């Protein structure tokens, strides 16, 4: 089984999995049967590839082979995902000029379809 990061809350095998640092702990009501189920707010779930393929709406993401995602403040209750260095400034995206302002498209040449009374010869087999 591989480890996956929980991006959106999911209920799997009678357990509610929440993203890391989710506020709910203890138990919650099941969406399927209405009974109490345990809550896991670690942000990590073990799934087989077949099980992970069933989550098609971005509920889970594969975790790098190094293990769980990096956390700030430990791995226990209240741990937060590391946002990166405080002095990080994203590089602005350059606008790419796709065509010059005086661009004039080249007309498409029409292909001669041949005579109007053309009938294709059937292929012999």
Overall description:
The chain is mainly β and 125 residues long. It has a domain at 2-61. Helices cover 4% and strands 22% of the residues. The chain has 1 helix and 9 strands, in the order E-E-E-E-E-E-H-E-E-E. It has one helix spanning 49-53, and strands at 2-6, 10-11, 16-17, 27-29, 36-40, 44-47, 60-62, 71-72, 80-81. A 4-stranded mixed β-sheet has the order 2-3-5-4, with no helix packed on it. It has a 3-stranded antiparallel β-sheet with strand order 6-1-7. Strands 8-9 form a two-stranded antiparallel ribbon. A hairpin with a 4-residue loop joins strand 2 (10-11) and strand 3. It is elongated and about 80 Å long.
Topology:
Layout lengths: L1 E5 L3 E2 L4 E2 L9 E3 L6 E5 L3 E4 L1 H5 L6 E3 L8 E2 L7 E2 L44
Parallel strand pairs: 3-5
Antiparallel strand pairs: 1-6, 1-7, 2-3, 4-5, 8-9
């Amino acid at each position: 089984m591989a480890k996956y990061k929980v991006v959106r809350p999911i209920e799997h095998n009678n357990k509610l999995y929440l993203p890391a640092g989710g506020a709910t702990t203890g138990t919650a009501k099941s969406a399927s049967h209405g009974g109490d189920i345990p809550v896991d707010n670690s942000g990590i779930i073990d799934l087989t590839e077949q099980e992970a393929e069933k989550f098609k709406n971005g509920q889970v993401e594969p975790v790098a082979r190094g293990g769980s995602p990096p956390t700030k403040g430990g791995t226990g209750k209240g741990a937060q995902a590391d946002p990166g260095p405080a002095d990080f400034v994203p590089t602005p995206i350059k606008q790419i000029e796709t065509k010059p302002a005086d661009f004039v498209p080249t007309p498409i040449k029409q292909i001669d379809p041949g005579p109007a009374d053309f009938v294709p010869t059937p292929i012999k087999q």
